[in-house]
Design a protein that fits this description.
Blueprint (H helix, E strand, L loop, with lengths): L1 E11 L2 E7 L10 E2 L1 E4 L9 H14 L2 E2 L4 E9 L5 E9 L1 E3 L10 E7 L1 H6 L5 H19 L1
Parallel strand pairs: 1-7
Antiparallel strand pairs: 1-2, 1-4, 2-3, 2-9, 5-8, 6-7
Length: 145
């Protein structure tokens, strides 16, 4: 059984919203990441992934999202303790608020970074770079409309 993790790729004025994960985090502490978190069991539910995305972005960086989110990609990985994680990334837009490190137990820093800055950063793991590459494709299509 997978743990489901949801992340939001948010683009504004040529830059992506990136956090530095708290060094207290069990997985990838101190590394750069998109904002997100795990899905909670709700039994029968609708739009659980989207609501998780909205909840996590509000809890971690204090922003609310517009309703229209677009699927970017999914990947899986295994935690050191053997649990398997399915990670799903959505492209989304801020509806209200300015991001800040609201949850200091999870977020040490909040940054707006270009794709080039992310790709060159020593604390940017490969999975973040790959997510940004895919989100850039969606963003480019949206900018052409």
């Amino acid at each position: 059984m997978f743990i489901l993790n949801i992340e939001g790729a948010i683009y504004r004025e040529g830059k992506w919203l990136i956090i530095e994960r708290s060094s207290k985090e069990e997985h990838a502490g101190g590394l750069l990441s998109l904002v997100g978190g795990t899905v909670e069991n709700e039994g029968f539910s609708k739009e659980l992934l989207e609501r998780t995305l909205k909840r996590e972005l509000f809890e971690e960086v204090g922003i609310t999202l517009k309703d229209d989110v677009k699927y970017v990609r999914n990947t899986s990985f295994v935690l050191p303790d053997g649990r398997e994680v399915l990670d799903i990334v959505f492209y989304c837009e801020i509806d209200a608020g300015e991001p800040y490190a609201k949850s200091i137990d999870e977020v040490e820093g909040v940054y707006w970074m270009t794709a080039a800055e992310i790709f060159a950063h020593t604390n940017a793991p490969i999975w973040l770079k790959e997510s940004i590459e895919e989100a850039e494709k969606i963003n480019n299509k949206l900018q052409c409309k």
